[in-house]
Structure formats: C-alpha cells, structure tokens
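Pasting two entries for a bug report.
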Amino acid sequence: MSDSRSSRRQRNAPTINDVAREAGVSPMTVSRVINGEQVVRAATREKVQTAIAALNYAPSAAARTLAGGDEIRIGLLYSNPSSSYLSEFLVGSLDQASRSGVDLVVEKWDEETSVEAVVAHLQRGRIDGVILPPPLCDLPELVDALDRAGIPAIAVATGRAPSDLATVSIDDRHAAYEMTRHLIALGHGRIGFIKGNPNQSASAKRFEGYVAALTEADLPVQDELIAQGFFTYRSGLDAAEHILSLIDPPTAIFASNDDMAAATVAIAHRTGLDVPGDLTVCGFDDTSLATTIWPELTTIRQPISAMARAAVEVLVRQLKGRRSPGTGKAEHLVLDHALIRRQSDAAPRMRPRLGGR
C-alpha cells in the first residue's frame, strides 16, 4: 500500500520539464542550474530557481544527470577498529563531498558478507565510485571485484606500490624511521615496537622504518622487544603487557597507532611505571585519542581528514575523466606527515630499572 501511495505522489510531482516550461528555458538549462554549472547566465539561473521554488520541485538523481549532468554518488566502505581514526576520516570525506557537490553513501563492511554481495549492493545503490580506507584498501578480492563491475575505487593509506588503482597515502616507512631515529636521539637503545595488523600493507612499512633506523644506528633488532598488535586498544594492552614483563624491558615503546600507544600507557600506569620518566611511549596517526589521554602522546601525524578529502577529490576527477575519455588516469598522492612531540617521550633515566613487572 505504501509503495502505491509513493508511486502516486511521484506521478503527481512536478518534473524537470514542468520547471523548464515555467521558466521558459530548456530542460538542459534546468539541469545545469541544478548541478551548479557556471555557464548559465545569472538572470536565467534566477528564473529557474524561481520556477523550482514556485513548483516546489525536488530534483531527483535522474533529473540531475539529465543532459550530461554531473550527479555523482560515492560510496565509502569502512571496517576499521579505531573509532578515532574512522571519525576523522568521516569528517574529511563528508566535508569534501559537500564541497564537491557529490553524494556520499557510507556503508559498513560486514565480514560475513561476501565480496560479490557487497559489490552487488553498491551497484543497486547506483554507486559511481568507492573510497577504500584501511583495511579494505588492502583487500585484493574486493579491489578486483570492483574492477570487474566497472566501479572505480581509490585506496587510502595503503602501503602498496602505485598501480592502476588510485591511491592517497603518506610515506609510512619514512615516518616510522623518523620516530625511531627520534627515540634513538633521546638516548634510548632498547626500543620496543608494537606491530600493526598484518592484513594492512602500511603495517609492514612502519615495521620496515623501525628496523631501518635501528640498523643505521648499529642497534640490534631484538625479537623479544617486538609484539604483534592489530590496531585495537585490546591488542595494545596484550602487546604492552608482554613487552613490559621482560626481565630487561625497553626504555621506550613505539606503537604502530595511537590506540595501541594509549593502551601501552595504561599498562605502564597499572604496573607503576611513570610515563615518560620510566617509559617513553609513542604512537602513530595523531588521532583525537592522542590528546585525550595523560600524558598526551608524542606521535606521527598522519593527515587523516586531509587524506579523506583528497580521496574524494581524486575519485571525482577520475569519474569525470571517464565521462571525458583520455583524462581518467589514476592518480597517486603522497601527503606530508609530521612528528608531533608532546609529553609522553623523554630521555631514559640514568638509573637501573626493575624488570618483570
């Protein structure tokens, strides 16, 4: 019954042709006004807007694409355990989608749903292109399925080498190298490291940077100081507890994201260690969590919101390039990162430390 009523309302609703007749212009001109194109004269634009208001016309997606309109629907698939990371990513995506005049459809990835079902859902939703933040940016079967379906995608924060898939990232390896070098310069010789989830290519790059800095400084890479994390607070608790239970624990721990670094601070406090007096703790990402715990985290600032905004811009350009053959080359942007010093790092204390806490 509700579908029938909806159909009657749609049949009685004013159309783009009605607006065109009311304004005395062509439907193409109405479409251009709706899409915000600047080629329409101000007087004509005013007439169309007056007609839209008079008829109480609500432009549909079909109307907005009439006569070559640029209505674009972008899908944002997410499956990220860090709410802080996701929050910043959403802010950037929504902001740029609004600025670009495109629709952003946010979809949560359900691990129990097959890749084929997800792609079919996107097709039913008339999604033109898809943004893939981590960890989905590193899911080959999803990227391949989108390619087969003819849906352009952009991978954000991936550590993979550039390919025909558009990407926005930072230099994760060099960022982790800089942080490790910073800790060495403070005087730390035993530096623990909590790895990120192995299903993300950026995790490997960050570990490579840690190893490169130690090797350059002629410091050994010690397996006992390295623990596996999964970018979750819970995994950070487990990893930090393991490292700090060593007979000879490190004087600094570098965690691959802020969630795990915050968990490390919590374990340090629980075991009676002062941060940074007894233990320096550093993170990665510079999410809001970095400044909402005590002490505030020294971390690598990954411009998450800016990366999300850039992803929307690049994808829009790519989609418009498909409509204008010869201009749709995949782009690969590498944004700047920064080492942000706060209160969680210091030189190691020049006194014996008790291990096995």
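Entry 2 (this is the one that rendered wrong in the viewer):
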Amino acid sequence: MSFRRKFSNSLATVLVSFAFLLALVPLISVMITTISGGAARFDLEFFTQSMRGVIGEGGGALHALVGTLLITLTATVISVPLGLFTSIYLVEYGRGRAAKVITFLVDVMTGIPSIVAGLFAYALFALILGPGTKLGIAGAIALTVLMIPVVVRSSEEMLRLVSQDLREAGSALGAPQWVVITKIVLPTALPGIVTGVLLSIARVIGETAPLLVAAGYTANMNYNIFSERMQSLPVYVYSQYTNQGNPAHAFLDRAWAAALVLILIVLLLNIVGRVIAKKFGVKTGR
C-alpha cells in the first residue's frame, strides 16, 4: 500500500472515530443529566402513588405508567395486524398500481409530524363524541397512525429476506399460497418482525404532542381507555415541568424521574429488539 493510500486510510479512520466520539457527547450528557436529576425521586412512592390531591411534595407517576401501558398496548394491538397484513400484501400479492399507491401512502405516513397524528385522532373523536373530547383510546389511535408505517416497513424487509427457494419448495409440494405464507414465510421472518414491532413501540412510547392533544392529562388514576382523560409518561414530564408549583424542586424532581423511567423503558425495548434480531434473525447467507 502506497504512502498516499495509507495516509488517506488513517485520516478517514481518525475522522470517523472523532465523529463517533462527538456524537456520543450529547448522548452521554443527556444520560448523566437525567440520572442525576431523576435519582432523587426514583423511589417506591414514585411507582405506587398518583398525583391525586398532591399540590406540593410527594406523589408519583403510577397513573402515568398505567396510562402509558394501556395506550401503547392498545396502539400495538391495532397497528401490528394492520401493518403485518399490509406488508404481506406488498411482498406476496402486491402488483401494479394498488401496491404503488399503498407504498406511497406508507412513505407519506412515515414522514408526517407526530402532532398531525394527534390532531387527526382528536378530530375523529370530536366528530363522533363532540368537541373537547379527550380519551385514552384517542391517544392510542394517534400512536397507531405513527406505528403502522414503521411496522409495515420493518415487516416488509424481513419478509423479503426469506429465501424464494422456501416459497417455491412449499408451492412444489402442492400447498396453496396462504399456507406457504402462514407455515413457512411468517415463522421464518417472525424474529425480525418481533424486533420491528419492539422498535416501533420504542419509537412512539415517548411521543408527547399527539397524546397531549388526543388524550389530555389528569392527576387521577384511569384504567378505562374509553372513558375520560388518561395520563402518560411523556405528558406527565411535560405537565410537571411546565406547571411548577411550590416548592418548584418537587415538580422538577418528578419530571426528571419520569424522564429517567421513560429512557429506561426505551433502552430496554431497544436491547430486547437487538438481542432478538441477533439471535433469531433471518440469515441471508448460505
């Protein structure tokens, strides 16, 4: 290798390493700040109490945790079948104009601002139940709009990774196409599909704007997603930070603690997704 090529290679390595370390600076800074700010209220009371009747110190985020769980779970139950069936259609059946239109719409949905999804859900339920209606299910619909394109794209990629030889082998044995899909294609791509679903959940679980618009916020526990407003962790962080009372540090401590919980949830989902993808993912090599 000539001196010029060695120098270019070394320079590129240094620049890439520097860029990597530079990208880590804000990430590490956010983690350190969140941990130091949230450690003060990362206690049992925070996970077992709501904000009902609390106007100063004390209280917790149990109602927000429950709301986040119910809203995200409902959004997942709605979006995963729709996204998976759409990806199956695009990969196995989609031909011509219909497939192009669906692909275009999925691309458009991928790029829409999250606040638009919240406005859509709010307007939908306002038309049905009247203006000012804010429900947990409305927040779930908003997250569904954001999750569907992610599920479609990830599932589509994993289905395309399944070897065509497997499909042809199933068809050669006389199995109809739906049997080949359900018995061969889907089981083979399932680990990657699960990874995509987990990553889509991690993508929407921290959304604030659509839930603030569609689901609102409350200090009370609410286990019924179809009735009344429902709190979520991102909105809890926003409300605690923007509506500081006396003493102000109590509200800030709760906000930082909720942000820390949210980061840990997203981190856990990403780790689980990576582990599943690495251990059970579709192997493209022979």
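Dev reply: Rendering is fixed now. As a check, the viewer should reflect this: The chain is about 75% helix and 0% strand.
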